[in-house]
């Protein structure tokens, strides 16, 4: 590819060329047959936009609030692990790019830069993603460190009691490096000749007994708002509202956990209808275009989180690459809004999209 990348897919190709196979496969891959991985993206293609015409779109404003914080667009950086495997600057580069784009970043619990390094890298609103270890005191300590370092919310990931079966990682014997955050607390480095070291680490360390009552525990150790990430059904959305969390993220973990779980965009509306506006609903999974963001907003998400495309930007061109990916998605969203007759984020409502289900009903 001689010229500059013009879309996320071209950034993915650059990342593939830049990265060792083991790392590229880890970032890009999904669970088992990778059915949901493919469908996360393809399900967006089946949603059609219903543009309105003759609207004055000479000024399109993408600014909005996410969990009460002002941002330049309804776009966030999803928590993804181990950015130093993509670029030596790691999460610090991602954080700076997110800040430059006036976008919120969620830092992964499994980051390669420390919470403190990311916090001091630049001034911006940031959220902290949490995994609960069997040794809960370590997770509690991390929550305190996030709080002390100015992170504004805790995103509790609930879809990984065990790690999904990622076959490329098994074949590549994907490494599990020591993470600086946990130095002196726990060894994250695992060496096994059998399969994925990351999987071996997670199965020994993640608390697979975590359940609804533990939200009470988390609330008791932090005053930060808590979001639950990994909800895919109306039943669980209602429970989340009942236990009093501040928000939820509709997510299937980028199709890396349960294969044949639903493509996230197909269940967003079910969750929105269950939540009835009581708490904000964020969304991730398969967002590769501004039109995808527009569709998720029309179906009720407050904002979308971007996972792999950010890593592809980082791997291809470091901090500047992340900035380019986020700017690209913002530009695409702005154009989509203009061409659909929406001047502001709140204008993007349900009547701007037609889903597969809508089409089915039309035929009945
Ligand atoms: C390489 C990689 C690492 C990830 N690490 C984490 C993590 O540490 N914590 C977490 O909650 N989610 C993690 N996720 C899931 C993302 O937060 C997000 O749900 C997903 O990437 C969204 O899908 P997308 O990649 O299609 O945008 C990871 C995803 C990828 C691709
Ligand atoms: C190190 C892993 C547990 C991070 C993760 O959530 C993932 O790879 O999907």
From TrEMBL:
FMN binds at residues 79-81, 108, 129, 157, 229, 251, 284-288, 307-308. One of its GO terms (biological process) is defense response to bacterium. Its cofactor is FMN. SUPFAM superfamilies: FMN-linked oxidoreductases. Its EC number is 1.1.3.15. The keyword Repeat does not apply. Pfam families: FMN_dh. It catalyses: 2-hydroxyoctanoate + O2 = 2-oxooctanoate + H2O2; 2-hydroxyhexanoate + O2 = 2-oxohexanoate + H2O2; a (2S)-2-hydroxycarboxylate + O2 = a 2-oxocarboxylate + H2O2. It is found in: Peroxisome. PANTHER family: PEROXISOMAL (S)-2-HYDROXYACID OXIDASE GLO3 (PTHR10578:SF67), S -2-HYDROXY-ACID OXIDASE-RELATED (PTHR10578). This is (S)-2-hydroxy-acid oxidase. It comes from Forsythia ovata. The lineage of its organism: Eukaryota, Viridiplantae, Streptophyta, Embryophyta, Tracheophyta.
């Amino acid at each position: 590819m001689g010229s500059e990348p013009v879309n996320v897919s071209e950034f993915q190709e650059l990342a593939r060329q830049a990265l060792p196979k083991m790392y590229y496969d880890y970032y890009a891959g999904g669970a088992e047959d990778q059915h949901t991985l493919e469908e996360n993206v393809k399900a967006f293609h089946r949603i059609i936009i219903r543009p309105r015409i003759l609207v004055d779109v000479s000024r399109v404003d993408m600014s909005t609030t996410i969990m009460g914080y002002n941002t330049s667009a309804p776009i966030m950086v999803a928590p993804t692990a181990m950015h130093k495997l993509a670029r030596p600057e790691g999460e610090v580069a991602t954080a700076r790019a997110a800040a430059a784009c006036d976008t919120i970043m969620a830092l992964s619990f499994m980051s390669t830069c420390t919470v403190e390094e990311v916090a001091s890298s630049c001034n911006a609103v940031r959220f902290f993603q949490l995994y609960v270890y069997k040794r809960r005191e370590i997770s509690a300590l991390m929550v305190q460190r996030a709080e002390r370092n100015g992170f504004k919310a805790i995103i509790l990931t609930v879809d990984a009691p065990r790690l999904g079966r990622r076959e490329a990682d098994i074949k590549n014997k994907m490494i599990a490096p020591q993470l600086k955050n946990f130095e002196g607390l726990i060894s994250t480095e695992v060496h096994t000749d059998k399969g994925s070291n990351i999987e071996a680490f997670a199965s020994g360390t993640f608390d697979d007994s975590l359940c609804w009552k533990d939200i009470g525990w988390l609330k008791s150790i932090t005053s930060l708002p808590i979001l639950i990430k990994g909800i895919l059904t109306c039943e669980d959305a209602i429970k989340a509202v009942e236990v009093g969390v501040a928000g939820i993220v509709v997510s299937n973990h980028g199709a890396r956990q349960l294969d044949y779980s639903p493509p996230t965009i197909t269940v967003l509306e079910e969750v929105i209808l269950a939540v009835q506006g009581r708490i904000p609903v964020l969304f991730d999974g398969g967002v590769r275009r501004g039109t995808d963001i527009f569709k998720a907003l029309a179906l009720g998400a407050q904002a979308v989180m971007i996972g792999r495309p950010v890593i592809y930007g980082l791997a291809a061109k470091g901090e500047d690459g992340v900035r380019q990916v986020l700017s690209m998605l913002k530009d695409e969203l702005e154009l989509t809004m203009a061409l659909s007759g929406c001047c502001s984020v709140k204008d993007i409502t349900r009547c701007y999209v037609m889903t597969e289900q809508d089409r089915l009903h039309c035929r009945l």
